[in-house]
Write a structure and sequence with these properties.
The chain is α+β, with helices and mostly antiparallel strands. It is built from 9 helices and 5 strands; from the N terminus they run ααβααββαββαααα.
Length: 288
């Protein structure tokens, strides 16, 4: 089937395709209204060396030791734990969040990302997450009895940004719904076309098409009427054989009453094996 034939089928079965497309558009629009839009807010924080570590020149940004990156990774893992999620939920953070080391970071930089359906709630949750991260950093060091002037500090590099709509996933769902509706509408159109073509065929062609659908090698039993027709055809073919009065034919053998002699059945006698026939000898001619 080429493109021209597909176009002709679509034109003939427009009454099936058009309602399907309208239903698809309605379902897609409803899904667009029902699926909520997700908003995302992101902030960036950095870990700084302790006051004692920067006492030489007083600039903490000049002392970015590798230990700070390890501490940033440990803090991110702690923030993503179930215990931290439960504590933040008690503080009102119900939106989904994530803490991780910033991509292509040259130092101990952390990304704090919050995703939710409410813009104001997402922005407030990001502020709460930043405050909780600083408290968690201090708590992790306090458990090791680190002096106050030797503790690693946290500073804000990028404050919580205004939540932005994330439409990528929503658009993907809508595209999948529209594509599924279009495919189903086309399938329904071609199904109706196939049914109409089959109904338009003559009955003998329909029977022939059904016979071709049967498995190869499968034979159907002949009905008594068909068997009788076969026997009648055999008698007719025997009767049409050339007789005695026909030119070019051999005269039929006459019976004792002058009629045509009927064909006699041929009886085939069983043959003995060659070994038994070879073992028997004919008696001499003088033996009576």
């Amino acid at each position: 089937m080429d493109l021209a034939e597909i176009f002709r089928v679509i034109c003939r079965r427009w009454y099936v395709l058009v309602p399907g497309l309208l239903l698809t558009a309605a379902v897609t629009a409803g899904a667009g209204l029902m699926v909520p839009t997700q908003y995302e807010s992101q902030s960036t924080v950095a870990l700084l060396n302790s006051k004692r570590g920067t006492a030489a020149d007083g600039n903490p940004y000049l002392v970015m030791v590798p230990a700070l990156t390890g501490m940033a990774d440990s803090l991110a893992r702690n923030l993503n734990s179930d215990a931290s999620v439960a504590e933040l939920r008690e503080r009102g953070v119900t939106a989904k969040y994530e803490a991780k080391i910033a991509d292509n970071a040259q130092g101990p930089l952390l990304w704090l990302t919050v995703t939710g359906e409410d813009q104001d709630g997402v922005l407030a949750a990001n502020h709460t997450l930043m405050k909780y991260s600083a408290e968690k950093l201090e708590e992790l060091q306090a458990t090791q009895s680190v002096p106050a002037d030797s503790m690693i500090r946290m500073t804000t590099i990028v404050p919580p940004q205004k939540p932005q709509a994330q439409l990528k996933s929503k658009i993907q769902y809508l595209v999948m719904a529209g594509a599924a509706g279009l495919v189903l509408s086309l399938v329904a159109s071609f199904f109706v076309e196939a049914r109409r073509r089959r109904e338009a065929l003559p009955k003998h062609r329909q029977n022939r098409s059904r016979d071709t659908d049967e498995a190869p090698g499968e034979e159907t039993a002949a009905t008594p009427a068909e068997a009788g027709d076969d026997r009648a055809g055999t008698r007719r073919s025997r009767a049409e054989r050339p007789g005695a009065g026909e030119s070019g034919g051999e005269p039929a053998a006459a019976g004792p009453e002058g009629g045509r002699q009927l064909d006699q059945p041929t009886v085939q006698l069983p043959l003995l094996p060659s070994s038994e026939r070879a073992g028997k000898k004919r008696p001499p001619s003088w033996v009576k």
